[in-house]
Specification:
Pfam families: HTH_31, MLTR_LBD. This is Helix-turn-helix transcriptional regulator. InterPro entries: Cro/C1-type_HTH, Lambda_DNA-bd_dom_sf, MLTR_LBD. It is a single chain. This protein has 288 residues and is α+β, with helices and mostly antiparallel strands. The chain folds into two domains: 94 residues, 434 Repressor (Amino-terminal Domain), CATH 1.10.260; 169 residues, Beta-Lactamase (2-Layer Sandwich). The protein is built from 13 helices and five strands. The chain has a five-stranded antiparallel β-sheet, sandwiched between helices. Helix 2 packs across helix 4, helix 4 runs antiparallel to helix 5 and helix 11 packs across helix 12. The radius of gyration is 24 Å and the shape is elongated. 27% of the residues are buried.
Length: 288
């Protein structure tokens, strides 16, 4: 099996980018962007000079992009062109992926969990489960998760993050029996994941916040260790039901950004399963 050389890959990406921009330009009518159609228009959509005008990009440079002659297109130009061509989030993500450039707006807004994903998380009860993004932000959690680890809804939005909690939460430090090993592992996974998002503001902001908050985090981060996503068993001591051993499993819901995954914590033995059931019973309202 042969693979394309790096330069050939770049050329393929440039051609795909050019074709994608042409297709998006041709589908936008002048009226959609507030331009007059005029009597002599032969182009099915916008002209190149109109896109250049709307995006404040030089006509020569935009023409080079559509001719696959531009070696590198900046995030600022891509952002302006995406806005001019009225791209939706999926189209915008595809544009930046073809250009091989990080989108500065990726996940800048609070992501919205889909109803289907929320239903999956809820139906995993009595097993703890949460919906997370690639940065380990907890977007949603079911009742067993809240009972066992604390309710994310009670925290400020910026603190609803597994790495932040494992670093700073006294409860997580106390009750996760393998907390130190878990923190080293999670930092290594975060560094590996961040390689694809190193220029994105949301990732940089979270990293800077952790570096400022914890000397321990800073020391571990400076080791430059990386680790893959893998299933493992966590030991957690609940103050009411005792030791629970949980196997940590990930189920990705989408391969592209924003990438969300359901994280389920499955009992690693019968005793842990019985204690999860006991915890669920403790939360049920008592009959009169």
């Amino acid at each position: 099996m042969t693979t394309a050389a790096p330069e050939e890959n770049k050329e393929i990406r440039r051609r795909e980018l050019a074709a994608f921009l042409r297709s998006r330009r041709e589908r936008i009518t002048p009226e959609q962007v507030g331009l007059p159609r005029g009597p002599r228009r032969r182009t099915p959509g916008l002209r190149r000079e109109e896109v250049a005008q709307l995006s404040a990009v030089g006509i020569t440079w935009y023409t080079w992009i559509e001719q696959a002659r531009a070696a590198h297109v900046s995030a600022q130009v891509l952002d302006a062109v995406a806005r001019a061509l009225l791209m939706d989030p999926t189209e915008r993500a595809h544009l930046f992926a073809l250009a091989g450039t990080a989108d500065p707006r990726t996940e800048a807004e609070c992501p919205v969990a889909s109803p289907t994903a929320l239903k999956v998380v809820e139906r995993l009860a009595p097993y703890p489960a949460s919906l997370q993004n690639a940065r380990y932000d907890v977007l949603a959690a079911n009742r067993p998760y809240a009972q066992l680890f604390g309710d994310p809804a009670e925290l400020p939005p910026a603190d609803r993050n597994c790495l932040w909690l494992l670093t700073t939460s006294e409860r997580w430090k106390r009750d996760f029996l393998d907390r130190d090993e878990m923190l080293r592992d999670l930092i290594a996974k975060y560094r590996a994941g961040m390689a694809e998002h190193v220029a994105e503001p949301a990732w940089k902001q979270q990293l800077n916040r952790l570096l400022a908050a914890s000397d321990e985090f800073r020391t571990l981060w400076e080791r430059h260790e990386v680790a893959p996503m893998s299933p493992h068993v966590k030991r957690y001591r609940h103050p009411e039901v005792g030791l629970i051993r949980l196997e940590h499993r990930n189920m990705w819901l989408a391969p592209q950004a924003p990438a969300h995954r359901v994280v389920a914590y499955l009992p690693a033995d019968e005793e842990s399963e019985e204690r999860l059931e006991r915890l669920a019973e403790l939360s049920e309202p008592s009959g009169e």
